[in-house]
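I am sending you the entry underneath: sequence plus C-alpha cells. Let me know what the C-alpha cell row says about the fold:
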Amino acid sequence: MDSKDWEWLVNNVFYTAKFLEISIRNSQNRACQQSMHMHRCGSKPHREVIYEMGGKDGNPPDVREVFVKTRKIDENIVEPETRKKYDELKMTMESEPTLTNLQVVERCF
C-alpha cells in the first residue's frame, strides 16, 4: 500500500469518532468473551466438528463431548469457568438422561 493511501486511511477512517466508538465497543466485547468458555477450534464451524466426531456416520456426539472437543488445549480444559460448565453439563446429563442435547443446553446456558 502506498504511504499516502495509508495516511489517508488513518486520518479519514481510523481516527473518526464513529470508528473509534465501534473499536472501543468491540474491545469491550472481546474482553467479556475471553472469560466465557472460548472455543479453540479456530475457524472450523461446530457443525464440522460434530460431523467429524460421528455425525457423518449417523452417530452425533452429545453436547458434552462437543463442548470439550471445541474448548480444550491438547487434551485438557484449561479455564476454570469452562471446567465448571463442563461439570454442570455432565451432572445435568447424568441426573436427567432423557433430556435431548437442546434441553441440556437450555438448562445449562
